[in-house]
Amino acid sequence: MAPGRAQAEIVWDAPAGEQILAIDRGAFDAQLARQAVAAGAAVRTAARVDAIEEQAAGVALQVGTERIRARACVLACGVSYRFQRRLGLGLPGQVIHTAQVEARAVPSDTVELHFGREVARDGFIWSVPVSRNGQSRLKVGVMAHGDTGASIQRFLSRPDVSARLVETPGPPIRRLLPLKPLPRTYADHLLVVGDAGGFTKPTTGGGIYYSLLTATLAAETLIEGFAAGRLDEAFLERYERRWQDRLGQELRVGDWLRQLVTRCSDAEIDTLVRAFATEDVQAVIRRTARFNWHRPLILALVRQKGIAALLFRSLFR
Ligand SMILES: Cc1cc2nc3c(=O)[nH]c(=O)nc-3n(C[C@H](O)[C@H](O)[C@H](O)COP(=O)(O)OP(=O)(O)OC[C@H]3O[C@@H](n4cnc5c(N)ncnc54)[C@H](O)[C@@H]3O)c2cc1C
Questions:
Q1: Residues of the chain with pLDDT under 70
Q2: Region of residue 86 (left: phi > 0; alpha: psi -120 to 50; beta: else)
Q3: Ligand 1 in contact with 27 (CB < 6 A)?
């Protein structure tokens, strides 16, 4: 999709020649839906699937009083896991809590991340300037274990943060975030993609790119299945091999770093952040950082002497 059509408001130049866009997610999804319709799909909104029933030749979906039959189903229902549990696919290996608010704010072009046990246990707080219809706003979110509502309120009441807001934010929107995939992401006539499959970056919890990637891999698998007349689980298992090939190492390395960093004390996190600001490490970041692929950067960073020693110590706690 052309980024401009998804109403990209703010563009940052990132290392490795990438550009990072803050997009309007609603506009992005609406544009995807328009493209799907143009490609021949029928899109139905406000249609809640209440049940998924496996049948010999496909699946039957219960939508209110209506029953819809299909040869295959792609489960993309985000962070609600009742279908996965009922279908015997299990639950994401790890989840974390989030809360987010948005309010009018003074203009800014600075993205901030805040770490610390008292700030956001096992996670972080982010503040991102956004612009809607020419209006400057600030998005503040937290990903952490524990009470994320309380974390965000504490952060918003800091004088340096409240001074930037020109209105009081409403109550935060809270949501779970998966940090590890389901034990199984396929069944007869069914594949699971995006948050429904537990696909997010273990480091940041970002999941839009992985949702699009797993959806693409699911589509490729189903195209082959339709061509071969095979939509049974033995055939669809190749979807899991596909995403393992593309994402397996990335997810393992990201999870490994997460385990180490969550064992670090606040003082050690400060040391890590200072190490990231040194000329040597900045050079490594400029050389290896890619927004959606964290493994090369993680592996390059843990080879840096000070960082390696610090993370190694945290391994033995
Ligand atoms: C606070 C917060 C901030 C985030 N920020 C970022 C970010 O900056 N960058 C990033 O990459 N990721 C971010 N993420 C993660 C990102 O939002 C998700 O990974 C992404 O939205 C997953 O897309 P998805 O299509 O799998 O699921 P979703 O976007 O959750 O979409 C699932 C859809 O399925 C619908 N649905 C659910 N159940 C049913 C049902 N029974 N019948 C019919 N429809 C149903 C839901 O209504 C929803 O529309 C953030 C997450 C949170 C919580």
A1: 1-16
A2: alpha
A3: no
Q: Are 20 and 3 in contact (CB under 8 A)?
A: no
Q: Is 317 in the pocket of ligand 1 (CB under 6 A)?
A: no
Nearest CA to ligand 1 atom 4: 206
63 CA: nearest ligand 1 atom = 42
Q: Residue 114 is inside which H or E element, if any?
A: strand 112-114
Ligand 1 site, residue 200, Cβ cutoff 6 A: yes
Identify the H or E element spanning 210: helix 208-228
**Candidate from 9, 211, 292, 293 with most ligand 1 atoms within 8 A of CB, to mutate:** 211
Atom from ligand 1 closest to the CA of residue 100: 1
Domain boundaries, the chain: 47-93+179-256, 95-178, 263-315
- Residue 109 is predicted with a pLDDT of 87
Residue 209 near residue 293, CB atoms below 8 Å: no
pLDDT of residue 7: 46
Tokens of 186: 């396929």
- Homologous superfamily (CATH) of 47-93+179-256 is FAD/NAD(P)-binding domain (3.50.50.60)
Ligand 1 geometric centre to CA of 77 (Å): 8
pTM exceeding 0.85:
yes
Q: What is the dihedral of CA 43, 49, 51, 52, to 10 degrees?
A: 30
Instruction: Determine whether the shortest distance from the Cβ of 177 to ligand 1 is under 6 A.
Output: yes
CB of 255 within 8 A of CB of 247?
no
Closest C-alpha to 202, from 295, 116, 110, 102: 295
